[in-house]
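Lab channel / #folding
Pinned by the channel admin:
"Please post every new chain as: sequence first, then the structure tokens as a reply. Keep commentary short and put observations after the output so the thread stays searchable."

First post following the new format, from NK:
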Amino acid sequence: MHIYRFGLKKFISDLSGQGAKIYGGRWNTVGNAMLYSSYSPSLAMLEFACNASGITKTIQTSLLTLKLDSKVKIEIITLNDLPANWQQVPSPDSLKVIGNNWLKSNKTLALKVPSAIMPLECNLLINSLHKDFFKLEIENFVDMNIDSRILK
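Reply from TO:
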């Protein structure tokens, strides 16, 4: 299975989850490392564009394609599992509790969650400290700019 990350070129190969650990995210609090990825390249770009402040067309960005072993177990959160306010910005603390509890359980390498930006598509959260993390491989990355129309 392929999953995708879109980000700043200088950090694109960093799979440690340190960015999420430093800044927190929709599904984790500060101090908890988590790697955010998407099931499609376009969603990865959209997630990045919506969550990165101050992005301009001069910032160098890349798309990273990751290959995940198809035998890896993935825990799934569906829309029915989420509170009514799950898409709000900033995100409700209840989502961080879900993500942090999943990390602490260490049961699966990945957690599939709906995208708050496009709920019909999904993101895949990766526990970079899980024993199966080695089953995630960098396949390639491509330098890619965000279309300036998205940045308006």
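NK: Helices lie at 18-23, 41-51, 93-105.
TO: also worth noting, DSSP finds three helices and seven strands in the chain.
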